[in-house]
Amino acid sequence: MNQTTFDGPAARTLEAVYQTPDLIAQRVRVLDLLAPRPGEHIVDIGVGPGLLAYDLARLAGPDGRVVGLDVSADMLAIAHERLASQANAECMEGDAVRLPLPDGGFDAAVSTQVYEYVADMPAALAELHRVLRPGGRALILDTDWRSIVWHSHDEARMARVLACWDDHLADPHLPARLGPLLTAAGFVVKRVEIAAMLSPGWQEASYAAGIFRAIHAFVRQNGARHDLADDEIEAWRVDQERLIERGEFFFSLNRYLFLATR
Ligand SMILES: C[S@@+](CC[C@H](N)C(=O)[O-])C[C@H]1O[C@@H](n2cnc3c(N)ncnc32)[C@H](O)[C@@H]1O
Questions:
Q1: Which of 68, 129, 183, 249 could pair with 202 in a Cys bridge, judged by C-beta atoms 3.0 to 4.6 Å apart?
Q2: Which of 114, 118, 125, 139 to mutate to test the pocket of ligand 1 (most atoms within 8 A of CB)?
Q3: Ligand 1 neighbourhood includes 18 CB (under 6 angstroms)
């Protein structure tokens, strides 16, 4: 992972995107599937801005406990601020492949949009398995970027822009491998679902709007590795602006939720 992805202003940008209706709907589905109960101990691996951890803390209640881990100091600062009012929640620095947590200490775990950044997935899932009690639940959500449908007037150029964007992840296609990886780590996969980030038209407060800007910034910095010249990147951006003006913007991307038990 390029760590700068989540440091500095990027942390606040991501926090804003994560408060759009698409992401609120995703969190509702994550909570429905995980079904946290009062008194449970829950770990959020890659807690990010802490929006999900905040909801988990409210559902776990005063007898429960929520621990949020992240490798980014800037993300942890935001999560810490958000969780300050929740006496049963805490945040700490921790890497998914080396969790600073005891064996079997948690009833449930969540990790949303995190494992796709992790190169050593067998190590990360072994750690997830270790910290859950027998029968404990894990809810994992990641994107497969092959599922994208993003309208443009130049499909070849769009494909090159997206190939460059794939570089920001350890595995942009993790969901297709995740079931067997979970089984190999000793989990039983109970359910797999899609959460779509769908914008059939332009919406300023949407995942699509946020990711359009994030991809533009990333490709401007890293396009050279994919022979993407500045004028070509600018043409890609202008094409999207024209589609937005004409009411022809279309974006759809699938995230995959896996519910598994230890
Ligand atoms: C796209 S954000 C998702 C944040 C949060 N899970 C959510 O869904 O709102 C990815 C987060 O994972 C963190 N992260 C990336 N690699 C990590 C690792 N190896 N261990 C722990 N956190 C990691 C990043 O710092 C960032 O906060």
A1: 249
A2: 114
A3: yes
